[in-house]
Amino acid sequence: MDVRFLGHVEYVPTFEAMKQATAAQAADQLWVCEHPGVFTLGLAGRPEHVLAPGEIPVVPTDRGGQVTYHGPGQVVAYPLIDLKTRGIFVKEYVYRMEEAAIRTLAHFGVTGHRVGGAPGIYIRLDDPFSHAALPQRPQRREAGTPAPEPELTGLGKIAALGIKVSKHRTYHGLALNVAMDLEPFYRINPCGYAGLKTVDLSTIGVSATWDEAARELAAQLSRLLAN
Question: Mind giving me the DSSP string for the chain?
Fold first, then answer.
């Protein structure tokens, strides 16, 4: 995969460039970048989940999900790939994206977890390094039954996922918190969950540079999204 490290780039021009590359059916690429502070609203985003944006812009987007925050110290990865060519179904794509975040965290000694009904990756606030499985981890359920109500007590979100698939081609992607100013997350209900605590590697005691985390996440995505 053609991996492009874009550095610190504005959100809106990057969003527009993703859409243009997808419409043009450009060759598969992985863009890795960092954005200045911005709140983004997914297609399911409800304005009331933006509590007090202040000076930070709020940008509606066409990805799935609710509201999230991007800012300095966060690694954002945008795979622009053709799922049909690679033989990957959408649910499998989401799983592989989350797995890339889990493996990147493991590289730094942190145990990431999936939670049933709540996309993204979480850590135990009381012990981010524990390998014990969460009781609220995704469970097998009968087809047609509703997803469980997420139980996020005692957890902090460290990676967020929001994707768009158009004619088998993907854009938007995954955000991993490395060393951020986390205050803006208190201005929203992250991903639509009131009171959800957001964390980064720095706040749980892991010293990693943006570049180290970006290169590890890019390597994991490149492996996991290969045909």
Answer: -EEEEEEE--HHHHHHHHHHHHHTTPPPEEEEEE-SSEEEE-TT--GGGB---TTS-EEE-SSSSSEEEE-TTEEEEEEE-BHHHHT--HHHHHHHHHHHHHHHHHHTT---EEETTEEEEEEESS-TT--PPPTTS-----TTPPPPPP--TTEEEEEEEEEEEETTEEEEEEEEESS---GGGGGB-GGG-TT-EE--TGGGT----HHHHHHHHHHHHHHHT--
